[in-house]
Design the sequence.
């Protein structure tokens, strides 16, 4: 194994440091950035989930416009007629996370400090007084006048951070948003002095108000031309990341294709344009998996948003319900801070992605991959169990061990009953749908190969579970008996799609007993292959 092989960066967001410091591999996106920046006087915005490489992209653009060709010798843009090599443009890059404060007054002070830093960076005397927006306006004019090209480049990261701080305090949020509106509006007023502007963020929580002063921006968030700008594609796993996948495969006793398939299952699946079927992997999670040599939920520590998990809880949803949400494209484009529409929050936050575009233009959303599915479920369970999470995690660990070592029948007779016994009292299990939802959540959390309703010739099975020993076809009942559930599954031939399966097929009947607040002993019976099936 070649230990000198660089892995994709998971923490370095400074392009110069990445290239010169040898601290990670840069997956070449410079041809796309060249196309992005070549047109005159571009004024752009793009949103992506956290930890998708937005800061590194801005740093790369900074080095491009400042003309640091020595950093790009081995990259695609080096052979392209890039203007920056001959006529560099002064670049002013800042992150609005530096303007976050715990109070409205603290926010205004930090925003003022940010503007003062820009004057110092440009070597321009500080104005004596004025609002942050007014001083920013003076900075833009003075910096452009000082520039050899009479133009400047502005790169703004995390534009939405000051607003996100006050989502639970709408009174302060409105005041912060008003200040930001005036601040960002100066970019439009001085657009003639700006050669290139790029703003990035996670959400569009402030679009209706803050962006009303920036209606000249081109939003690339759903552009098919830039669907793969951030994140790694399956082709890049075959190309510049191939040696990393090979090392991962060796560590895990796999061949290359099996390793690639596993990595894509865990970290791929993000589709950002309804007009392109291109999908990308979460770059930080994939990079961590390649570095550590194992599949794991890295999203939980790098990208999970408590606000979004709480919003799911408040909407009385659980992660198993989120697959298959159908929305109009416009519902994903704007997110109002006061109402926080669930679909837009989940999409912009990276918890849901585009799965299919219908002929009508409506979009089917779904959970992108195994990592996000686990992160959603665990975050949701943590938010409802509070202090009981340690007991819950112990139940999950036991269930995972039993599923692997003893099989599905032990899981059903022991672990599933224990899981239902820990259902919090605030959960109202009042019908078969609630029983199934809880079951699917539990199975997802332990990593079982589980899917929801599956159509047969005469109806739908409630769930299908697969393992190395067989295919298990479930029917759930509420306040009846496991026998009744089993007989319905058999009578309606829910197992018919698996008649030709190589594995044994079993019917499983599960009944939730509302008086006991738990499930009766599940019944498991094998499918008789001689049964007639339509």
Sequence:
């Amino acid at each position: 194994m070649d230990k000198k092989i660089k892995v994709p960066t998971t923490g370095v967001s400074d392009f110069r440091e990445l290239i010169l410091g040898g601290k990670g591999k840069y997956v070449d996106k410079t041809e796309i950035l060249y196309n992005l920046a070549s047109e005159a006087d571009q004024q752009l915005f793009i949103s992506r989930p956290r930890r998708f490489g937005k800061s590194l992209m801005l740093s790369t653009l900074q080095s491009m416009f400042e003309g640091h060709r020595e950093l790009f010798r081995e990259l695609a843009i080096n052979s392209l007629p890039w203007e920056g090599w001959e006529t560099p443009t002064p670049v002013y890059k800042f992150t609005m996370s530096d303007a976050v404060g715990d109070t409205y007054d603290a926010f205004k002070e930090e925003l003022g400090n940010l503007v003062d830093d820009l004057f110092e960076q440009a070597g321009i005397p500080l104005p004596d007084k004025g609002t942050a927006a007014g001083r920013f306006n003076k900075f833009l004019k003075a910096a452009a006048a000082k520039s050899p090209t009479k133009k400047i480049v502005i790169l703004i990261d995390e534009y939405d951070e000051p607003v996100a701080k006050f989502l639970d305090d709408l009174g302060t949020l409105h005041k912060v948003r008003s200040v930001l509106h005036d601040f960002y509006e100066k970019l439009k007023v001085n657009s003639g002095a700006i050669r290139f502007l790029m703003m990035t963020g996670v959400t569009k929580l402030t679009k209706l108000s803050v962006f009303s002063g920036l209606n000249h921006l081109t939003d690339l968030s759903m552009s098919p031309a830039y669907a793969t700008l951030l994140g790694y594609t399956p082709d890049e796993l075959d190309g510049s990341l191939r040696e990393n996948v090979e090392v991962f495969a060796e560590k895990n006793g796999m061949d290359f294709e099996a390793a690639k398939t596993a990595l894509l299952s865990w970290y791929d699946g993000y589709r950002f344009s309804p007009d392109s079927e291109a999908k990308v992997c979460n770059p930080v999670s994939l990079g961590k998996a390649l570095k550590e040599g194992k599949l794991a939920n890295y999203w939980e520590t790098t990208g999970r948003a408590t606000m979004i998990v709480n919003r799911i809880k408040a909407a009385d949803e659980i992660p198993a319900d989120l697959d298959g949400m159908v929305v109009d494209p416009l519902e994903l484009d704007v997110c109002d801070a006061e109402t926080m529409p669930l679909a837009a929050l989940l999409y912009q936050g990276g918890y849901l992605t585009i799965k299919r575009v219908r002929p009508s233009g409506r979009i089917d959303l779904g959970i992108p991959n195994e990592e996000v599915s686990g992160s959603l479920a665990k975050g949701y369970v943590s938010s409802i169990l509070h202090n009981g999470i340690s007991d819950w995690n112990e139940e999950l660990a036991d269930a995972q061990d039993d599923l692997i070592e003893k099989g599905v029948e032990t899981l059903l007779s022991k672990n599933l009953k224990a899981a239902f016994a820990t259902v919090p009292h605030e959960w109202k299990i009042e019908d078969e749908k609630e029983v199934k939802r809880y079951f699917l959540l539990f199975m997802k959390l332990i990593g079982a190969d589980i899917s929801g309703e599956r159509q047969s010739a005469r109806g739908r099975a409630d769930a299908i579970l697969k393992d190395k020993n067989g295919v298990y076809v479930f029917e759930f009942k509420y306040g009846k008996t496991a026998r009744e559930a089993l007989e319905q599954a058999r009578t309606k031939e829910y197992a018919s799609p698996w008649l030709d399966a190589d594995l044994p097929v079993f019917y499983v009947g599960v009944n939730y007993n509302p008086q006991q607040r738990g499930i009766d002993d599940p019944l498991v019976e094998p499918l008789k292959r001689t049964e007639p099936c339509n």
About this structure: The CA atoms of residues 392 and 495 lie 32 Å apart. The first strand starts at residue 42 and ends at 47. The chain has a mean pLDDT of 86. DSSP finds 19 helices and 16 strands in the chain.
